[in-house]
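Hi, here's the filled form for the chain we discussed.

Project: internal
Contact: R.S.
Residues: 254
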Amino acid sequence: MKLLIVDAMNLIRRIYAAAEDAELPLEATRSRCLAAIARNAEQGQATHVAMVFEQKCITWRHQLWPDYKLGRPPMPQPLQDDLEALQRYFRQCGLYCLELSGWEGDDVVASLAVKAAFAGLQVTILSTDKGFCQLVNPRLTVRNHFDRFSWDEAMVEQKFGLKPAQLCDFWALTGDTTNHLPGVPGIGPKTAGHLLDTHGSLDVLLVHYQQCETRVQNALQQHWQNALLTRVLARLRTDVPLGFNLHELRWQPH
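And the returned structure, exactly as it came back:
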């Protein structure tokens, strides 16, 4: 069995941005989203499909770091007003739509993906969000619909020079501008990659930071708490209680 998990707002917002100048942008967004999902489900031979939406709410990440996602452009108001109708449309088309109050959509996607992969399904997450790359394993890939490529273990190592399990440590050092996460000032991707190649993990690095060059020593000594906080924020939760049966996600293309 194969499960396609759609990061709904990621797909919808990008397709809406491309359709915004169309005569009927919301209608175009609906039809193009459905076509994109159907195409990826067919190409991946998906037997099950789920769309994960997200309520606008304060989550545990905001409680830990009030500046989380600070500065992100707001959703266009016409799209915001149409979200309920969009969900109804997708449900009428036979798609299972999931939205859990108080939880960020990324954590819901991660929980569903990891549990399904552990149960033996082959899982594909449809999203352009590189944060999902931390989950990649032999049973779990991340598909970028717009650039038409998939993140598997080999692609993650090729692009980042790291294993998927090291990515949260990498972002802990570099920060993440997309989500406005602090990281360690002065440590960029090249230095972070070298440090993790040498030490293997952030935890080992922080134990042996005095072996690093003076610049890195000073940065870690001053900002190690930022690094640990960023790692917590960057790491996707996989323990969200989902509460549904797999048969509800059965894909029946129309």
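Let me know if anything looks off before we file it.
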